[in-house]
Design goal:
This protein has 5 helices and 14 strands. It has 209 residues and is mainly beta. It starts with 15 loop residues before the first helix and ends in a 16-residue tail after the last strand. This is NADH-FMN oxidoreductase RutF, flavin reductase (DIM6/NTAB) family.
Length: 209
């Protein structure tokens, strides 16, 4: 089959998110102007640079079916700070619980039974049990076209200013993905978990960085 996204696909569910997959999940913690914590997962997330390290995530900006701005974006706009926590197999249920649309000001950490850990250079707390966490400061916000007249599509870029890694995740001097077992979104209601790796070296190169 083939189709123009603007015309629709005729399938029961949109295949686009399943085609561009797996996608790492940005489990983003923020605080509002009163210091209240918020935590939410975003599957349009990735690293986009390494010197300095920069990550991005995108959001529709509004809660699904509600005329209410998403807390993560609103908090980042107010404070210029956020933390990306690594999702893992062991934290899958808690991650899923934080995708619920709670009223503004309610703490997803508490709702999901997650312990907070303090950050070093930014105000938002991080998930204490996460295998790794990236403290970020807002670099740039980019507005994208949006088919929904009442919504907005926004890409948020953040510079990583501090990195936390659990000591048990370092094996032979490397961050061990098979030990952290990160989750990825695969479209529909499907997820993947990294449990096995293989190596390929580029022609003329030694070990990976």
């Amino acid at each position: 089959m083939r189709y123009r996204p603007a015309d629709g696909h005729g399938l029961p569910h949109d295949p686009f998110k399943a085609i561009v997959a797996p996608r790492p999940i940005g489990w983003i913690s923020t605080v509002d102007e009163e210091g209240r914590a918020n935590l939410a997962p975003y599957s349009f997330f990735n690293a986009v640079a390494d010197r300095p390290p920069v990550v991005m995530y995108s959001t529709t900006g509004r809660k699904l079916g509600l005329d209410e701005r998403k807390d993560s974006l609103a908090n980042i706009r107010r404070t210029g700070e956020f933390v990306v926590n690594l999702t893992s197999w062991d934290l899958r249920e808690q991650m899923n619980a934080t995708s619920a649309h709670l009223p503004h000001g309610e703490d997803e950490f508490l709702a999901a039974g997650l312990e907070k850990a303090p950050s070093v250079e930014v105000a938002p707390p991080r998930v204490a049990a996460a295998p790794a966490a990236l403290e970020c400061r807002l670099l740039q916000e980019v507005a994208l076209p949006c088919w929904d007249e009442t919504g907005e599509n926004v890409v948020v870029f953040g510079e990583v200013v501090h990195i936390h890694i659990r000591d048990d995740m370092i094996v032979d001097g490397r961050f061990d993905l098979t030990r952290s077992r990160p989750l990825a979104r695969c479209g529909y209601q499907d997820y993947a978990v990294v449990e096995r790796l293989f190596q390929m070296r580029r022609p003329g190169q030694g070990g990976g960085r």
